Amino acid sequence: MSPVQIELRDTPFDSFQELFEYRTTFSKNGDHGACSTFVGTMREYNGGDRVFAMQLEHYPGMTEKQLEEIVGEARKTHEILDGLLLHRIGNVRPGEDIVLIAIWATHRKDAFAACREIMEALKSKAPFWKKETLAKGDRWVENNTPGE
Amino acid sequence: MTIYVRFFASLREQTGIDSKTVDADGLHSIRDLWSAVTDEPLDETTLVAVNKTYAGPDHAITDGDEVAFFPPITGG
Fold it and tell me: InterPro entries under this entry (chain A) (predicted)?
C-alpha cells in the first residue's frame, strides 16, 4: 500500500493546517529524518490580467489513477516513508492553495527529489485544466510554465 | 463495435461534445474515431486516453473502449 495519501478537494484547504494534522496520523518512530513540501497557490494576476476566479476541471478516475502512478514512479527510485498530496478541483479563488505535496523520508536527498519529481510529473501527466475568469470573460490556460 | 467518446476542457467547447457513444464499425484507430465524431483537424498537441491510460493517435480501438480527447494539461 502506498504511504502517500492522495486526495482531490472541491473546497478550500490550508496546506499548513493539513500538514499539521497529517503529521499526527503516522508514528514518529525515529525514521522520519526529512520532510520536503511544495505548496502551489492561485495568483491574482496571470499574463498581465487580473484573475478573479478559476475553474479547475479534471477527468474523474483518470486523474486519481495518474496521481497514483506518478507517486508509484517516484517510489521506484526514492525512499518515501510518508506523504500527502492534495489538489483542488472546482472553483478556486486567488490566494487559495491549489496543490500541496509533502514527502517524508529518512534523508533530505530522497525528500527533496521525490517532492520535486512528483510535482513536475503532476504538471505534465495529471489531467487537470484551468479556466480563468477575467474582467473581459473566461480564458483557458493553454500551458504550464516550465519548472526548471 | 461501440466506443464511448469524451471531450474535456477547451476541446469540449470547440467540438460542442461532452460525451457520446459512437457506432465504430469499420473504424480502426483513434485517428479514425476522431474523424468520425468531428470535422475539426486532430491537433498534434491533443492528448488521448483509452480507458483512462494515455495512448497515441494510431492506437487500435476495441469494442467498449472509453476514449477521451483533451488539450495539454494545466494543473498544479
Answer: MoaE_sf, Mopterin_biosynth_MoaE
Domain boundaries, chain A: 4-22+32-137
Rounded to the nearest 10 degrees, the angle between the axes of helix A62-77 and helix A108-125 is 150
Of A59, A98, A140, the CB nearest to B10: A140
Task: Write down the CATH number for the domain with range B2-70.
Answer: 3.10.20.30
The pTM for the full model equals 0.95
* Domain over A4-22+32-137 is classified CATH 3.90.1170.40: yes
Closest CA to A53 of A106, A5, A90, A105: A90
Interface residue A140 vs chain B (CB under 8 A): yes
pLDDT tens-place string over residues B39-60: 989 999 999 999 999 999 999 9
Report residues of chain A scoring pLDDT below 50: none
- The domain spans of chain B are 2-70
Inter-chain CB proximity B76 and A119 less than 8 Å:
yes
